[in-house]
Specification:
The structure is a homodimer of 436-residue chains.
Chain A lengths: L2 E9 L7 E10 L2 E6 L12 E4 L4 E4 L1 E6 L15 H13 L4 H17 L2 E8 L2 H11 L2 E8 L12 H13 L2 H4 L1 E7 L7 H14 L3 E5 L3 H11 L3 H7 L7 E5 L5 H9 L3 E4 L1 H6 L7 H6 L3 E4 L12 H15 L8 H8 L1 H6 L17 E4 L12 H8 L5 E6 L2 E5 L2 E2 L4 H15 L3
Parallel strand pairs in A: 1-4, 1-5, 6-7, 7-8, 8-9, 10-11, 11-12, 12-13
Antiparallel strand pairs in A: 1-2, 2-3, 5-14, 14-15, 15-16, 16-17
Chain lengths: 436, 436
């Protein structure tokens, strides 16, 4: 069914951040068919399903480039504690008990939250990823999925390694599936959970499959110090040597970069997924965002998992990325509203290699859109709408979300998910997991 | 009309942060009449107006201890620019054109936003404060109001000074009015906009009237340096000498405190209104929050005006105050969820000298309450509800707000304000102000 969105303010998110007043967008199948500057509608769309967006904003959906969706099962479960205690006493023991069905429902819970708050694509690293793929297929959201890979054994055998094989299988089963909404990357967890040969093997496999890598990199000061001690070089240099950067890479966090690290990442066209909420909450530190951007690094945004955030609200990450550097460097001109919003959209699309499909409103692009109700009080008076997005918006102002041409939420009503059932299943499973 | 809220999870915000499961709260006139732990309702309330809060959270409303409500007229108008340019080229020239009616409608816009996001009391410093008082009286919110005082003239005459007289008049006309919802403080703007004798005069007047002072203090590094150069002492020492701290004081910002400053503030029982969003956005810096709290300073939260935030969302300030110190000091145990939430409620009540009236759910207290819909996906699974408030909540999850026993919003519907009219008036006035 064709779709027409009319009377909208359209934030195209093109290079020059053009805004179309009183624009119309027509959607046919999975694509944007036509964008009108004059309120003109192509004649064959006159009977299309119509959304009147008067006074509202239409823009590309947000792209969450680093999360662990199923960890919403652990939301508000362990907070304000030292990182090691959080990880080894709280996260790992509970995650060990997760079944595939638990991961499925955790992913569903997160997908509900992401759609409600305007996220149309997410990059996920976890286990039981076939279950996450199933949730993505059913719900209509777009995703980049990777099976988290870990190996502490220097004598592992790449041929028989269970996780590498699962990753390969995930790629073969799901890459390009769900109407092209799913891409599969490899997910070597980090330099401290993968022995060097294993990391090299993961990089080789990515090359062989013609795909990319999603990895945690230099999240904490400890990781940075340990890398120097264990490998005699920085974590970035270590990855460079092992061939990790010879494929497209989403490097999550990148908080503790040296100048040379920064140069390497730029040169190798690595994308850094900045997770300000998680980095603050876990006490990981404050990334060198102004320098990362000014050196030309592609910095995108992520929420990380809901166990360390504790939500999947990309508006918050936009806000934080816009604010923190200003206060930290005593300079209110750093990271302007345009840059903050671009990180959550255009840079995210580029990071996932889908910049020719999504991230801009233009005829021929996939229709991944959201409508924000900018008639609400926090957008009044209607001054700069990009400033509003960065500084005064609320994620629950998102009222309609479209992915791949399909309406996933309209006027706050989810169209592809039985939210009550998801909540029921999650609460039941969490009770079982906690042994109640 | 009596009011009964039943089936609620009640976060009392008492000293031990007690939570009552399946609690009932009855409200008679302006007060909490009875809080039940067992779902028992006093017999004479059986026919009361009833709100079923099943699965939801009831807690005291939030207290915004530093804002300039009418500055919402300047929301998203000037961002990402140097402070001096923002202030002298953008803020002051527009504010100079404001009429009393403009300030009234700007305050109304902010009150809509505050009620919608769970704020039940705000402390405001601005001009045309009689208009703000009128907005407070009409809308039913609670407020601490102060006429901003400035004087650069060392030869001023306290008897005839226009602003001091306006402040006195505001006190005489409005202190204790609107069913006791309004208190009036004096508002000497800052040490850099009030010559020393004027600041002393304001302090004397506060003593004479038996009221308190609301002042900006050590917001920027420049202010801290200038104080040393101009007065030969820190801004805090300067205020101490002039008698400013001899009355109850809300000192907004307190970003650049010396160790000695901190001791003085604690000793003089000054309350520091921490405004993390504004301090970040204007590049003012990062306050020494962990030390301020551990030394026993009463730190409360504020949004500052919407021209520098750019919203009045206290949930964001709770989140920021919980997150920033952790990341800045690489320590995830700093400022836990309880502390962050207490700053926005209990510490705020203490800062405004109304801790015996609001900030705790207990029989006999004024009924200033909010109901948060914790059935929403971002509270699932239902683990620690205080962590949820601090880290995963959204201000638009607030669905019902009660002030002084009167329902101001129920199920997202405002009961005392014609929101459309407010938005219409604001947009009309902003167009006129910008000469369109």
């Amino acid at each position: 069914m064709d779709l027409l969105i009319k009377n909208a303010k359209v934030l195209t998110m093109n290079e020059s951040m053009d805004i179309i007043e009183n624009g119309s967008i027509t959607v046919r199948d999975d694509k944007i068919y036509y964008v009108s500057k004059e309120g003109v509608v192509p004649p064959d769309f006159s009977s299309a399903n119509t959304i009147d967006a008067k006074g509202k904003l239409v823009m590309p959906g947000l792209i969450n480039t680093h999360t662990h969706a199923a960890m919403s099962l652990l939301r508000n479960y362990a907070d304000d504690m030292p990182l090691e205690k959080w990880l080894f006493e709280k996260m790992f023991p509970t995650e060990d008990k997760f079944t595939g069905e638990d991961v499925y429902w955790g992913a569903m819970l997160s997908i509900v939250e992401m759609i409600r708050t305007g996220t149309t694509t997410f990059a996920d690293m976890y286990f039981f990823m076939e279950e996450v793929a199933r949730a993505v297929e059913e719900t209509g959201i777009r995703a980049n999925l990777s099976r988290g890979l870990q190996c502490f054994d220097e004598q592992f055998d790449a041929e028989t390694d269970k996780r590498l094989n699962e990753a390969k299988e995930l790629f073969n089963n799901w890459n390009g599936k769900a109407d092209g909404r799913i891409r599969v990357y490899l997910g070597p967890h980090s330099i401290y959970t993968c022995v060097p040969d294993y990391l090299r093997e993961a990089a080789n496999l990515a090359k062989e499959l013609g795909t990319g890598i999603h990895i945690h990199l230099l999240e904490t000061q400890k990781e940075a110090k340990d890398s120097i001690r264990n490998f005699g070089c920085t974590g970035v240099e270590h990855c460079l040597k092992l061939g990790v950067f010879d494929v497209p890479v989403i490097a999550a966090h990148c908080v503790h970069l040296s100048d040379n690290d920064l140069e390497i990442l730029v040169k190798k066209k690595v994308s850094a997924a900045h997770n300000p909420g998680s980095n603050l909450k876990l006490g990981s530190g404050i990334a060198r965002l102004p320098e990362m951007l000014s050196k030309g690094l592609n910095v995108c945004l992520g929420t990380d998992g809901a166990a360390s955030n504790n939500n999947l609200d990309m508006f918050e990450e936009i806000r934080l990325s816009g604010l923190i550097s200003k206060g930290f460097h005593l300079n209110p001109t750093l990271i302007d509203a345009n840059e903050a919003v671009r990180m959550a959209v255009s840079n995210g699309a580029k990071a996932l290699g889908i910049q020719d499909e999504v991230g801009v409103i233009r005829a021929g692009m996939k229709a991944d859109l959201m409508i924000v109700d900018t008639n609400r009080v926090n957008y009044i008076p209607k001054n700069n709408v990009v400033s509003a997005l960065a500084y005064s918006s609320n994620s629950l102002d998102v009222e309609t979300v479209i992915v791949n041409g399909k309406v996933l939420m309209e006027g706050g009503q989810l169209k592809t998910i039985d939210e009550e059932k998801v909540i029921y299943q999650v609460e039941k499973r969490v009770k079982q997991l906690s042994g109640k």
